[in-house]
Amino acid sequence: MTTIKQEDLIQSVADALQFISYYHPLDYIQAVGRAYDREQSPAAKDALAQILTNSRMCAEGHRPICQDTGAVVAFLKVGMNVRFEGDMSLNDMINEGVRRAYLHPDNKLRASMVDPPIGARKNTRDNTPAIIYTDLVPGDRVDIALAAKGGGSENKSKFTILNPSDSLVDWVVKTLPTMGAGWCPPGVLGIGIGGTAEKAMLLAKESLMAPIDMDELKARGPQTPTEELRVEIFDKVNALGIGAQGLGGLTTVVDIKIAEYPTHAASLPIGMIPNCAATRHVEFHLDGSGPAVLTPPRLEDWPDVTWEISEQSKRVNLDTLTADEVRSWAPGDRLLLNGKLLTGRDAAHKRIQELLDSGQGLPDGVDFTNRLIYYVGPVDPVRNEAVGPAGPTTATRMDKFTEMMLAKTGLIGMVGKAERGPVAIEAIKKHKAAYLMAVGGAAYLVSQAIRSAKVIAFEDLGMEAIYEFDVVDMPVTVAVDSSGESVHNTGPAEWRIRIEELTKAG
């Protein structure tokens, strides 16, 4: 009989969550490095360089890879010869570990969990509760797999029940483009096959924990039907040309993971969940000898890639920005933002709309005239930081507010991640505005451009408050210009053709 002390489990969970907040799994970051070496699209290559540079900076500085530090998902396999010494339930121990990790004073992580999920949606402030799955298994130890799953990738999860005779590959290839780029490719695609509806999704989530081995698999050749399926899906997904951040390129996924379970003869349940550029997970075990020991990866094992400002980049003075200057920007232009930048995301936009609809107007000190808004919910600062990691959030969530913001506030542009939908693009075109894209998965790199930050409205919303940032050379790309042309449409379309030509040429 093995005895696991309550404190050992709590501390192990806390340590592991801190660990994955700033250390990418080495297999993932090396796979992105290989993708960088192969990439031929300049826009995608630049995005990959930012992701790789951000990863090394976070590993060195022990700060979060992404401002969205995720919902905690825990898979536990508890040996039946284990007893716990303590007065807390197993779930309470896990949640206490989450609480300690997310409130750590030297690396405070962003709390994103809200309760209840509808209605008030009040932030729990410590990122509890975790999503916990527990299996009782033979043995005398506890195996724990932890992940911190960001909302951008989780929101792109897909589920279907196919007919047994239907093609899984066809469904994946048809469905993936509908996910857009809000899941921050390149990443790993987890696919669960079989069981029931909820089992298929659970299989997909758990499959994302498996080591990345696609390059090795392709080098030796698939040896099972499942491996053949992985390779086929991998090749066909990358042939779509979606590319890093959806800008068009050779690599959309770095691996395909598949987990299977027997299912009803009449059914073929399929779950599909992507992991993003902020892939974060770790596995460890407890055997009664004390807290888990986590070995940091060696910095020399990171790809030797450093992002640098492009000579083609144009500096923009946000404090003197005009509508005419915005109209001069072309899709794909690389800009460096300098000056005062306002922020706001879902909750702030909803409150702005309520204020305007009621006739109250904007809060004192909030003026969007000839200004840009940055869709971000930053991590709290530590030490001498102006702000913690502050990468962009998924812009499509603000699509329904875009017409209101452009028509009623004087706003002339927005900054976020991934594509905009038709409603937002139509509003941008109508008002001759622009949408700029920052790289998702480069939050710490972006935060280095922010020299000061202060809350100017809606302080009660926490990370969703309206801030005013003072930025210096913050890198962005023109994703939708004033005519409504979107690089997230033109880029993948161009690279789909190029990849087809490259494949034919051998």
Question: What percent strand?
Answer: 15-25%
Low-confidence stretches: none
Characterize the largest beta sheet: strand count, sense, and whether it forms a barrel.
5 strands, mixed, barrel
Structural class: alpha/beta
Q: Which overall shape is indicated by the principal axes computed on the Cα atoms?
A: globular
User: Radius of gyration from the CA trace?
Assistant: 23 Å
Mean pLDDT: 96
The end-to-end span amounts to 59 Å
- Share in helix: 25-40%
- Counted up, domains total 2
Number of strands: 19
Quickly count the helices.
15
Query: Looking across the biggest beta sheet, what order are the strands in?
Result: 14-15-16-17-19
Can you summarize this structure?
Helix content is 33%, strand content 24%. With 506 residues, it is an alpha/beta fold.
Features:
506 residues, alpha/beta, fumarase, 2 domains, 5-stranded mixed barrel, 15 helices, 19 strands, 33% helix, globular
Can you characterise this structure?
- The chain is of the alpha/beta class and 506 residues long.
- The chain has two domains: 2-286, no CATH class; 314-491, Fe-S hydro-lyase, tartrate dehydratase beta-type, catalytic domain (fumarase, Alpha-Beta Barrel).
- The chain has helices at residues 6-22, 26-38, 42-61, 90-102, 151-154, 168-175, 197-207, 214-220, 225-238, 323-327, 346-357, 399-408, 422-431, 443-447, 487-505, and strands at residues 2-5, 71-79, 82-85, 114-115, 122-123, 131-137, 142-149, 158-162, 187-195, 253-263, 268-275, 281-286, 314-317, 334-343, 372-374, 413-416, 434-437, 450-457, 466-480.
- Strands 14-15-16-17-19 form a five-stranded mixed beta barrel. The chain has a four-stranded mixed sheet with strand order 6-2-7-12. A four-stranded mixed sheet has the order 8-11-9-10.
- Strand 4 and strand 5 form a beta hairpin.
- Helix 11 (346-357) crosses helix 12 (399-408) and helix 12 runs parallel beside helix 13 (422-431).
- The model has no long low-confidence stretch (mean pLDDT 96).
